[in-house]
User: Fold these one by one.
Assistant:
Number 1:
Amino acid sequence: GRKLILGGVEIEHDKGLLGHSDADVLTHAIMDAMLSALSLRDIGYHFSDKDPAYKDANSMKLLEKVLVMISDKGYKVQSVSAVIMAEKPKLLKHIPIITENLANALNLSIDKVGIGATTLEGLGFVGREEGICVSASSVMVNIDE
């Protein structure tokens, strides 16, 4: 009964992801990559799943807060990259929309947001369609340089 949301985009699928917030695993991974690049811990530290304020939270709103934290530390995002690992749904047609949505949210040009997708060929919990994984990285630059 949950929606599947990736990069702030609702993806039509019969399964959604469980989570305290909207469970947007892609946006979560990108936020964690940005925060950890600046030694700012992770989203669980800043937006605890024990805090009712974040119940069903929109991850794109949390991303806005993370961008403020990054700016407050004197940095900005130069680029992000992420690979979504999922058996289903097939994401090829959704990647351009997800990329554009994230680029807008991050105030980056589309060519600075690399989003890819792959399957795990039936291996593990991802292969059994029990979940989705994302690996993400980010490049941060000092605002003053």
Number 2:
Amino acid sequence: MIYLDNAATSWPKPRSVYKEIVHCMRKYGANPGRSGHMMAIKASEKIYECRESLCKMFGISNPLCISFTSNTTEALNIGIKGILKPGDHAITTSMEHNSVVRPLKKLESLGVKLSIARADKDGRINAEDILNLVNEQTKLIIVTHASNVTGTIVPINDIGRMARERGILFMVDAAQTAGILPIDVDSMGIDILAFPGHKGLLGPQGTGGIYIREGVSVDTL
């Protein structure tokens, strides 16, 4: 079989992934943090080890700034809906996945102002076009790191720098790049990072995560 759908989910997974999943189910597949027996403790240790590995990959200093989700879509919804309130202004691009566009459009109907930076004919985003959309109410800039349709890469270094200089929160959808392209949240000025576990990180389906920088308040109610 020739498999060309890795933008949706990676396949096949490395043999080590299959082996560890089976090992988990047999040796420590208990609820972490819910009990004091050895299997539950081992499960908690594995979760923290995973957080530490992600910190090394993404340049994150505090493992507790990472939360696990069922996929990138859930992570994006947590960040977008947890940050924006009626009267806020958000900027995104025309290259975004529905998991970004739909929650933004829903919030727009509730009073959030939305601006969309348009890509050029080759599907590329110019950081200056995003800067030109900034106003006094701009609270969040959210962009994909790379398009799942065209493969074009967004200049998140430039956008992150401009956002940080202006005190605007910067969120990145790393669905297509986590584990593929280098990501350093500090040097790139990323405040919130949403990522999947089952694509470039080669993990099982039903896994994802979100990084939220210390000091950023996200309403989860």
Number 3:
Amino acid sequence: MDVKATDLKKKEYDVEMQRADSGARPKRARYSSSLIDANAILPGDDTELLPETYVIFITENDVLRGNLPIYHVERMIKENGKLFDDKSHIIYVNGEIKDETPLGKLMQDLSCANPNEMNYKELADRARFFKKDEEGRKIMSKIMEEIINHEKNEAAKRMLEKGKLTTEEISEYLDLPIHIVETLANDLQPV
């Protein structure tokens, strides 16, 4: 799950839930941070217009292996130990630590399947809505269908780029309508 948000002070956030350790390696954080910057201003714009940014990885495991609940990663000037203060921040939240602190309780809730066992009422109520309420289940089904269709389209694009399968074969393998695969193929053609 990824969440992209901007607060009232125009700070930008990229929050990523990572189950696989490989999805939260340091260069992945650097890449995510660079994408925010690259999309924040146009070439030639004053770089002072770059917003303050936060890339936050909530990881299932302690990928930085320091046995800390949270890691704040900041650039430092090596020679004097002072903060570089480029307004780019990376935060890792260790999902393994589920203690009695507010953060530990949140990590417990994020890994909990049963809303009745969650610590935070607001999160439990939302989880209960999407799991138990008919309208919530419909919303979640629609979201899951959109995610699956997006993933199928991305897989079809990769298959088309490799050029080893016909559009008909891709349509059959991915259970995608042929007209969608053909549209994706046309979109990949150079203009």
Number 4:
Amino acid sequence: MISLDWKERLKLDTADFITRKIPQGDYDIDIVYNAYPKRVDNKVPSEVIVFVAKTLAGKIARNADNYFNFYDYLWHKKGENGRLVFAYLMQKITKRNPELFLDYLKKILANCDDVTDINLVLNKAVTPLFKKEEKKYIDILFKWLKIDNHHLHKSIINLFTKIAKNDPSLLKYIFKKMEQEWMHPNEHTVRDNTLFLKAIYKIDPEFYFSIYDNYKGSR
């Protein structure tokens, strides 16, 4: 639990970082949260990093498109804590301008080989978008499955599974999108469909067996 005094200190230091450091190209945000004296397993508590990230996001959200160099630096240069800050920044910013920042996140995740980091960004920045326009963003993520990155594919299929569990009406919609790729199978589509078919069995066994009945004579 962060004390009120430290919350005020972190807010002031974050504001100072935005005003004085970022314009000079000094993106070492850890100077803010490293000031916090307590450690958990010799690390800054994650709640402190998240608090700083959310404070930062609230202050730059209106002009978020001015800070791409900063975002790149967080993701590529500041390790685990930097990627945590990045994810919470994107959570706030992507809601305000989904088109611009989903395109940016696509480029970032296309070159990521860590499923944990991919899941973090998808869960924080992309999943909230599904609350309003599910099919629109399902369609966008299907385009991301064209990227040659099996780590990203796995995370997207897991996200589709979560969406289908929460809203079974979307299960058949997602499957139909998958099914369209069966006419031109490749290594990626076979693996992706296998993962999702296993998920379908757990969510709706009856639907799963209807798929089998439909294709058993040809596949």
